[in-house]
Design brief:
alpha+beta, three-stranded antiparallel sheet, Peptide Deformylase, binds cobalt (II) ion, five-stranded antiparallel sheet, 19% helix, 179 residues, single chain, 3 helices
Length: 179
């Protein structure tokens, strides 16, 4: 089932999410719905979706970035094991900076420097504990989604760092003021 993605004003996006205590039928169905919801996004497409974005304050997110071999990976109860001091501005294959965006604020993008590497420990849908290191753009996705689980939205970083924010739709873009 495709779920409704809440927008930036929804209170769930500002709450701290809770641990998933048991990966039961309800959680499995939520994870499956979140995967379907993420894959259904076309304008814009998404690379990640956190449970608060569908109104559930649970420590769950989905990543989808086939270019790096990440296909609808579910991440449950993630904890940061280590994070690099080195920051990056991720680039795409054409060597352009990848701007960060969010399905809860569609069509707005801005540059954010994230740690270039992050190692997390999490559970998969079977409840198995997995330790995994991500680098480059996948590391950025992980950091963006982990932020959602503590009530942080990417525009908070834009505001704090006084970085520009752009509204991009089709081929048209303009710089906008954050208010
Ligand atoms: Co987001």
């Amino acid at each position: 089932m495709i779920l409704k993605i809440v927008d930036i004003k929804h209170p769930a996006l500002r709450k701290k999410s809770k641990e998933v205590v048991k990966i039961d039928k309800k959680i499995k169905s939520l994870v499956s719905d979140m995967k379907e919801t993420l894959l259904s996004q076309k304008d814009p497409e998404g690379v990640g979706l956190a449970a608060p974005q569908v109104g559930k304050n649970l420590k769950i997110f989905i990543m989808h970035y086939p270019e790096a071999g990440i296909i609808t990976k579910e991440v449950i109860n993630p904890k940061v094991i280590s994070i690099s001091k080195k920051k990056i501005k991720p680039k795409n294959k054409r060597n352009e900076n990848i701007l960060e965006g969010c399905l809860s604020i569609p069509h707005f993008y801005g540059p954010i420097k994230r740690a270039s590497k992050i190692t997390i420990e999490y559970q998969n849908i079977e409840g198995e504990k997995i330790k995994e290191q991500f680098s480059g753009f996948p590391a950025q996705i992980v950091q963006h989604e982990m932020d959602h689980l503590i009530g942080v939205i990417f525009v908070d970083h834009i505001l704090k760092n006084k970085s520009p924010l752009y509204h991009i739709k089709g081929n048209e873009w303009e710089e906008v003021e954050l208010t």
